[in-house]
Amino acid sequence: MSTEKIGWIGLGNMGIPMVKNLLKANYEVTVFNRTKEKEQELINLGAKSGANPQELIQNCDVVFTMLTNDDAVKEVFLSETGLLSKPETGKLIINMSTISPETSKFLAEISNKHQIEFLDAPVSGSVKPAQDGALIILVGGSTKNYERARPLLDILGKLSLLLGEIGVGSSAKLAINYFLALNIQGLAETVLFAEKNGVSRENMLTIVNEGACGNGITNIKTPSLLSNQYPAAFPLKLLHKDLNLAKEEGLNTPLFHPLFESFKQAKDNGLGEEDVMAIIKSL
Ligand code: NAP
């Protein structure tokens, strides 16, 4: 354990369980969330509350951001009481939100102008791995900052990989979420095709999961497919956001375009707040 004081901004589906793990490991954690009520559960567990991002970085050594998208992260960094509103020599910001590699590079550059260090560290894995401290953390940045962050990353994840410069972590995240979307779409299409030809959903999922095509995703999504209920673990609108970022990064493969349109249509049809597996409802 290091003695660094931790700040955490963004208490959504992912942020809350991740902070719980830092508290369990006896770190001093100060949280900030735009909707203040969401802080209460963590305050009850021993977290402190900060008035704004500026106060957090003044009082903490390392500040994590786990926010919806590029715009949210930029707002938290750049607003009047944002993380970069004053120079804070020697502090480290670790962004774990999924954002574009360009935004990661931009944030690193302006952080450094404020004498603040920056790591690009998005995560692979959803709410359950976040609860279990079993995320895979995809890091871009300097070896020095990575080594400083390691004791904390080791609590949040089962594996962290330093992949290259700032932005490379975000690129890896967009690539793995493309593969996730292919899996989700493929599973939904397979189940529907089988059902149409007289194979029950339950039997088809057994065939998938017991064979070489079964994987973590097919297993995790099986209960929701059987109950036809899709409470959000990873909301469909966030996967659509990530496919959009991948498109902006130049992903232009034969399967990408229909896949992107499928998730766009599902989101436009009002399925954005449901889990990614709800794609089956729009097929
Ligand atoms: P979420 O539940 O929607 O939470 C988003 C957080 O961002 C909330 O704390 C929200 O504050 C805050 N926020 C949004 N806009 C803001 C703004 N303009 N200013 C300040 N705060 C703002 O999202 P999540 O599921 O935790 O995901 C967080 C990030 O991790 C996303 O980039 C997502 O793509 C990525 N991710 C998610 C999963 C997953 O399974 N959910 C897995 C891997 C990666 P309020 O509470 O005030 O709305």
TrEMBL record:
Pfam families: NAD_binding_11, NAD_binding_2. Residues 5-159 form the 6-phosphogluconate dehydrogenase NADP-binding domain. Residues 167-282 form the 3-hydroxyisobutyrate dehydrogenase-like NAD-binding domain. One of its GO terms (molecular function) is NADP binding. It comes from Flavobacterium gilvum. PANTHER family: CYTOKINE-LIKE NUCLEAR FACTOR N-PAC, OXIDOREDUCTASE GLYR1-RELATED. Keywords: NAD, Oxidoreductase. SUPFAM superfamilies: 6-phosphogluconate dehydrogenase C-terminal domain-like, NAD(P)-binding Rossmann-fold domains. This is 6-phosphogluconate dehydrogenase. The active site is at 173.
